[in-house]
Write the structure tokens for this entry.
Amino acid sequence: MSLTSLWRAATQHRLFWPVTALVALLVINVPFTPGFFEIHLKNGHLYGSLVSIVLFGSPLILVAIGMTLVIATGGIDLSVGAVVAISGALACLVVSKQGNEDAVGGVLLAFALALAAALVCGVWNGLLVARLGIQPIIATLILMVAGRGIAQLITSGQIITVNSGAYSLIGGGYWLALPFSLFVVALVVVLSMALTRRTALGLLVEAVGGNAEASRLVGIRSRRIKIMAYVFCGLCAGIAGLMISSNVSAADGNNAGLWIELDAILAVVIGGTSLTGGRFHLGGTIIGALIIQTLTTTIYTIGVPTQTNLVFKAVVVIVVCLMQSPAFRAKVFGARAQRRGPARKTPGVPADAPQQMEVSP
Amino acid sequence: MAEPRPVLEMTGIVKEFAGIRALSDVDFRLFPGEIHALLGENGAGKSTLIKVLTGVHPLDGGTVVLDGRPVRITSPLQAQQAGIRTVYQEVNLCQNLSVAENILIGREPVRAGRIRWKELRRQAAQLVTRFGLDLDVSAPVGSYPLAVQQLVAIIRAVGSGVAGDGGAGSGTRVLILDEPTSSLDRDEVEELFALMRRLREEGVAIVFVSHFLDQIYEVCDRMTVLRNGALVGEHLVADLGRVNLVKLMIGKDLDELEELSEHHGQSQAGETVVKAEGLSRAGAIAPFDLEVRTGEVLGLAGLLGSGRTELARLLFGADTSDSGRVYFEGQQAALREPNDAIGRGVAFLSENRRTEGLVPDLTVRENIILALQAARGWTRPVPASQRDELVAKYIAALDIRPADPEAKTGSLSGGNQQKVLLARWLLTRPKLLILDEPTRGIDVGAKAEIQKLVVSLSEEGVAVVYISAELEEVLRLSHTMGVLRDRRLVARMANGPDVTAGRVLEIIASGEHQ
């Protein structure tokens, strides 16, 4: 009895299906990669498939976290890929201009300038959306397209390579036996959770995304909230840009962070945040980003031909999304589920659910 | 008159939500050619019964017999095909489409796969004229006032059997009107009633849900009363007096309501809370002067669209003014945003609960705390213990049901949603509370509770601006009255025994200045 109720409570949890999908994807790898779950200590560094997934998934997690807040306000940010490119390009340019590329001061200056540029990008998006009232998809499309050009301008159309041990730390280095980027991600995650849930920012963001006019009439400075979300998103993308360029010790204005905005949006949706805004779930987003990264890894390990790997990815994403949809589950497993009695609080009520019901105590 | 066979007979209807019985063993019958009032407080189960009948919710028990044949209605489409048409309280039209497109949506006249636009407009125009309206059917629905939109929605529902596919037997057998009059003014209600009577003569059975008792007695033949999800009784309207009806609905005596009628006239000479001089906004409201003192209830009367809401929105900074000045407690204020007014202790309960009040995805607790939190800013969250205490206090004080701070606000009934919004503002301890139609679309019991609340707030020294389409309500509650006509504040007077509904109506109708 208690076991079944425990089971039901678990399946009702909004992270149940994302986590299940992630575990399933990980398990699929085992027959193809013996020792998939093994982690070795080599030269004081941890190695293993799981470590790589987190390492390579770090930029996506960062971008997706920023994207979550923007989507929660009812917006969307298509420009994150371009911001990744700009930030990486600027940082690499600054580092490459230093006499001694390994100098910590020079690298810190590069970080500061790159993040300042990302911040400016975020403010630009925020102003277009919140001040001028341009639809977010159009407003951020501007920077998505123009940003690549700006990145090219910074790199003069070349791929700038750097040779700096200090710079490669953030995206490819190790600290305390773990990839350094892990600490950066952890820091950003903790910060963003504290920022949204220890303050009232999360509530206000959800209110603005849930009903913008009601929020205005209740006295929420929704413009300010929106601008903050875009700035935060830009900063996350900026850090991700540093990681990506640091990992390969090069800045490629054309390809760095290409299509990362789409993966990030996908991660947010898989994580249970609705694209219409309102309720958001940072934990879900992180799981979502890990699912996407695991999927990419899986595609390589099980040897899906490169020409078809996008199709494969699409199929898995569709399956994951369908499994999360209460409406779909009710259709497929409906008969059994109904005999078990009506579900209590359903998380993520399907769109066609009744708007109102009168319940008498 | 011998009773003909009912067109619809629902027996022993049971509906549960999450283990809670919303309807238990309810019987409901409907005869052809009658207007049948479905009555009950919020949460009594009216909407649930309608949604079961229209296939929105599946049935958990009981039988439905339509035209003598048992039926199982499992989807709104099926209900529609069976001739059961519904118009819900909130207008569900596509604002950007034309009147004609809205009326004939899904039933457009088609030739060779293409819509015949001229024919579409012709058919729509024909329907509109048949129902005695004069509209440009090619104009977007959104360009008409809400009241007209409501009529368009009804025409769409009824018209779906008249024009279009033209199949025999697709005519309207049952028309359900769920609070169609809540946003209509007097003349428009008359138009609607004329339409309803015409349909009754054609043999349509009409289910009419309304909180306005006058309207029930004016237009209905029979009524069914629900309370707490159970059937209380079915009566002929002629057989049951108002007092008895209200007793049936709320299950208690009206003494509390009676007490309230004593309250008016004693205008306290408090300090001025708000003062407006020549405040105006083009196209919304002509320049007006206004003053409200502490503990004073200023009632605003006037027809729908007379500028009541527009006036309130200027005082709150929801819209910006073109001219004039506002003073709060003697200090001039520039109101560019609601925020500016909220900072000076103003609260505004909008008439549009759904679009301008609630955040339906958020919980009751979050909705209640929202105004207070917004005032504190995002860096200073209300401490959890204090928040829970405040929320619990107001849920209890306003009797919000279910009394669950975790409930999603969108799933509450209308009256309870309104209480959540009231709680939200009361938490901020406002000095000036602007209530725009606070009792619209909610039941008698909740109405009395809200009115009582207004009285006690005013006794505590809160200045209140009270807007309502129900003249009696405004007269009963206010110390001073303002009357609006054609976007102009035409009269201000102290309320007293000599101020009667008749006199106010005269001002509204004639244009006599005070």
Notes: Strands of chain A lie at 40-42, 45-47, 160-161, 174-175, 178-179, 250-251. Residues 337-361 of chain A have pLDDT under 50 and may be disordered. Chain A touches chain B at residues 198-201, 203-204, 206-207, 210-211, 213-221, 225, 278-279, 341-345, 354-361 (CB under 8 Å). The longest strand of chain A covers residues 40-42.
